[in-house]
Amino acid sequence: MAVKVLAIGDLANGFVDLSKIVKNAEIHVINFQWDTASRLTESKEVEFFKSLKISEQVKKINSMKDDYDLAIVNTWAGARLAYLTGMRYIMIFVGSALRVPLFIKNPTLNYLEKPLPSLNFLERRFYRDVLNGAIFCGTNENDLYEILKKYRKKDIFLIRNALDFDRFNENVIPIDWKKEKFVFFSPQRIGLAKGIDIIWKAIELTKTDFQVLQVEWFLGQRTEEEREKNKNLVLNKPTKVKLIPVIKREEIPNVFAFVDGVIGQMRNGLGANVEKEAAMCKKPVIQYADPKYKFKIGNEEKISPFLPQSNDPQVIADLIDKIVSSEEFRDELIEKEYSFVKKIADPDVIAQQWEELFFKIKTTENRKKSELQLKFRVLNFLIVNRLYTKKVRKSI
């Protein structure tokens, strides 16, 4: 019998894509009604919470949990619900959730001068319990795995994201837009975390003629400093950059098919799903690939073929110009990136890794929490959650 898994919260459709490749598990995704979630998630395959109130979300999960063997989460909000409702859960970290964990006082990011606001002591302890309460904790990238090892010593793993090769491939029909020159697509959110400041400095240094279509949505906004820096980015964007509205998930492959190249992240040195999806559509992708990170392919460890291997603006500018001006170089880069992604995102391998985790949890003893214990968890959280000052709550 297949393992029944409830995915609580989803970022970048990771769990939606995973649900399509597993053969011995059934995954149902329930997501939050966040600003961009409903626009960027394939809604026909996802259920959404009807309320943003945590107490209502707890009721919803309690009404569903007996139908599932376990939960998977990739946000603190999702992990919080799994913990409060007593589900057995796997926590997979993506993005900044582990770089600035909620249980750390005054967490810092290397592109901001000031630390982020802290939660109060009791709530930091609560989220530490949420981390410890997971049966397994994993990450999707090498750098995050090194961070995870600092906070948890056992039952941790590194596993790549599932990709939807049926949706992202070289046979996709291009979207019906007009094109007058070489066009790059930048689908990531505008913000320092993605290195948009670095990308736009590089664009100003280029010599060739092209246009960049940048999706107009934002990452971060967690502090006044970050809001101001993002605002200044938009005010001072290069003339070659054209801002476009948020694109629905279903249309992203068609946009990849239309453009001549894709510009990805330039800050963390590893990239994300969007660059890999673009590579599967056989488009040349510019993405900072730090050579210190290695990827296991079979019995070998290899560095990523994505370019550049430096996030220096001049290096990026030279690479952009080379891609625009040389068809031969583009074709060579496309083949290297495509072959690499196809190997590291092999759906059969990734599905097997996830299914082994699912069955391992399903076959272990399920020590259920009593109804009284769970009510105490919820009450405790709701109390400490209200101990914020209004100023701290607003900034977080």
Question: What is the strand and helix layout of this fold?
Answer:
Elements: E1 3-8, H1 14-21, E2 25-31, H2 37-40, E3 46-48, H3 54-64, E4 70-73, H4 76-84, E5 89-93, H5 121-133, E6 136-139, H6 142-151, E7 156-158, E8 182-186, H7 196-205, E9 210-215, H8 224-235, E10 241-244, H9 252-258, E11 261-263, H10 273-280, E12 285-286, E13 294-297, E14 300-303, H11 313-325, H12 327-344, H13 347-362, H14 371-385, H15 390-395
Parallel strand pairs: 1-2, 1-4, 2-3, 4-5, 5-6, 6-7, 8-9, 8-11, 9-10, 11-12
Antiparallel strand pairs: 13-14
Helix pairs in contact: 4-5, 7-11, 10-12
For the report, how would you describe the main beta sheet?
Answer: 7 strands, parallel
Low-confidence stretches: 388-396
Instruction: Assign the CATH topology of the largest domain.
Output: Rossmann fold
Number of helices: 15
Strand order of the largest sheet: 3-2-1-4-5-6-7
CATH superfamily of the largest domain: Glycogen Phosphorylase B
Order of helices and strands: EHEHEHEHEHEHEEHEHEHEHEEEHHHHH
What is the CA-atom radius of gyration, in angstroms? Answer: 21 Å
Question: In whole angstroms, how far apart are the ends?
Answer: 43 Å
What is the CATH-assigned architecture of the largest domain? Answer: 3-Layer(aba) Sandwich
Indicate how many domains the architecture comprises: 2
Class from secondary-structure proportions = alpha/beta
Mean pLDDT: 88
Shape estimate:
globular
User: What's the helical proportion of residues?
Assistant: 40-55%
> What is the name of the CATH class of the largest domain?
Alpha Beta
Question: What is the strand tally?
Answer: 14
Percentage of β-strand residues = 15-25%
